[in-house]
Automatic annotation (TrEMBL), chain A:
Annotated region (ACP-binding), positions in chain: 269-273
InterPro entries, A to Z: ACP_syn_III_C, ACP_syn_III_N, FabH, Thiolase-like
Gene behind this protein: fabH
Pathway linked to the protein: Lipid metabolism; fatty acid biosynthesis
One example of a Gene Ontology biological process annotation: fatty acid biosynthetic process
Stretch forming the signal peptide: none
Residues of the Beta-ketoacyl-[acyl-carrier-protein] synthase III C-terminal domain: 252-341
Family label: Belongs to the thiolase-like superfamily. FabH family.
Organism expressing this protein natively: Streptomyces triticagri
Catalysed reactions listed for this entry: malonyl-[ACP] + acetyl-CoA + H(+) = 3-oxobutanoyl-[ACP] + CO2 + CoA
Name the UniProt record assigns to this protein: Beta-ketoacyl-[acyl-carrier-protein] synthase III
Name of the top EC class for this enzyme: transferase
UniProtKB/TrEMBL annotation, chain B:
Gene transcribed to yield this protein: acpP
GO molecular function, one term: acyl binding
Compartments where located: Cytoplasm
Annotated organism of origin: Streptomyces triticagri
Domain Carrier stretches: 3-81
Annotated protein name in UniProt: Acyl carrier protein
Gene3D superfamilies (alphabetical): ACP-like (1.10.1200.10)
Function: Carrier of the growing fatty acid chain in fatty acid biosynthesis.
Length: 343, 82
């Protein structure tokens, strides 16, 4: 048997830079209320959302990703040629083949970086971060670009009063690279496929293509509705608040961090009520800065954590070197939590 | 020992007071959580989880929607408590 030379990676990995892109168009609740019987007060009290960004035709998944990535690469102080892999997490890029990651890697000017897409819903950023850390430490890439990007406005049923106000568009990216000490803790992650029905696309693409009107949801004009994301609100809320608080606590324990050691909490921006209840259930001390980007960004699935991270650093609410707990959770159901040092 | 109806109502009143800020004396058997007590669907989930812990009972998601009034919840807890 021939001896295979082992790969050689960095001792540890860290987030070196972060960048975000929010579409130009800001959509207030008044616009949402044109299609549903609700009120600004109701939307704010159930979700904490006042405005969200919706992408224009030009603000494609690729275009938003490239903008966010350019900022993340600059923030990391590296060049695109130094990126060895590009991981894109999205559920709203409507061309499945080829992966959008390859186009993004090329447009950014990487040197033939490995590139692929993943589908892990609102946990996508944590899944991507975990893969990136593994690549850096294992040695298959020195720097990895992780992008969370969504155009959820394309998958929103504007006549569904339970979800029409919820979703937004945007992209967030981080560069993960080598570190001399641990700066990304162990990931606590998993899936609960027995709850796969609680958050899902209303109609599978193939059923939509077959076009059997008797089996498809219709809008108020009698036209077949485009597939959208739907959820069982109460079941998701219970799982997110109470089960995810345990996962978040496990991630703290795995990293050897107590809530007192924590500077920042960046949960997936699913709903302000979930965020507030998680903070209460986790008994986070007052000094912990909590990301509440959802108020002006809505739920942007895989993009929400890096977008919130970027904003906290940009506004000075959080600073480089802070210890942050990040947790993503969503359709699958899937989840991923870890403790990181902010770039 | 299983809680009595009176104890359950008193316990629910404390829970609803803590979660939704509703005065304890307003929480009575015939009161609807959403219409009378202004407990919205998400707060209802928090009430249910707190009730599960307090009364050692499991209330699955599919049963939560049937708990319209304080009386519904009290009956459910009495029937299912461990």
């Amino acid at each position: 048997m021939s001896k295979i030379k082992p790969s050689k990676g960095a001792p540890y990995a860290r987030i070196m830079g972060v960048g975000g892109y929010r579409p130009t168009r800001v959509v207030p609740n008044e616009v949402i209320l044109e299609k549903i019987d609700s009120s600004d007060e109701w939307i704010r009290s159930r979700s904490g959302i006042a405005t969200r960004h919706w992408a224009s035709d030009e603000e494609t998944v690729a275009a938003m990703s490239i903008e966010a990535s350019g900022k993340a690469i600059a923030d990391a102080g590296i060049t695109a040629e130094q990126i060895g892999a590009v991981v894109v997490s999205t559920v709203s890029h409507f061309q499945q083949t080829p992966a959008i990651a390859t186009y993004i890697a090329d447009q950014l000017g990487t040197d033939k970086a490995a590139a692929f897409d993943i589908s892990a819903g609102c946990a996508g950023f944590g899944y991507g971060l975990t893969l990136a850390k593994g690549m850096v430490v294992e040695g298959s890439a020195e720097h990895v670009l992780v992008i969370g990007v969504e155009r959820l406005s394309d998958l929103t049923d504007l006549e569904d009063r339970a979800t029409a106000f919820l979703f937004g568009d945007g992209a967030g990216a981080v560069v993960v690279g080598p570190a001399t000490e641990p700066a990304i803790g162990p990931t606590v992650w998993g899936s609960e496929g027995d709850k796969s029905d609680t958050i899902k696309q209303t109609v599978a693409w193939n059923d939509f293509r077959l076009g059997d009107v008797s089996k498809l949801p219709l809008d108020s004009k009698g036209d077949v509705k485009f597939p959208a994301i739907t959820q069982e609100g109460q079941a998701v809320f219970r799982w997110a608040v109470f089960e995810m608080a345990k996962v978040a606590q496990n991630a703290l324990d795995a990293a050897g961090i107590t809530p007192d050691d924590l500077d920042v909490f960046i949960p997936h921006q699913a709903n302000m009520r979930i965020i507030d209840s998680m903070v209460k259930t986790l008994k986070l001390p007052e000094h912990v800065t909590v990301a509440r980007d959802i108020e002006t960004t809505g739920n942007t699935s895989a993009a929400s954590i890096p977008l919130a991270m970027e904003r906290l650093l940009a506004t000075g609410e959080a600073k480089s070197g802070d210890t942050a707990l990040v947790i993503g959770f969503g359709a699958g159901l899937v989840y991923a939590a870890t403790v990181v040092t902010l770039p | 020992m299983a809680a009595t109806q009176e104890e359950i109502v008193a316990g629910l009143a404390e829970i609803v007071n803590e979660i939704a800020g509703i005065p304890v004396e307003d929480v009575q058997l015939d009161k609807s959580f959403t219409d009378d007590l202004d407990v919205d669907s998400l707060s209802m989930v928090e009430v249910v989880v707190a009730a599960e812990e307090r009364f050692d009972v499991k209330i699955p998601d599919e049963d939560v929607k049937n708990l319209k009034t304080v009386g519904d919840a009290t009956d459910y807890i009495q029937k299912h408590q461990g």
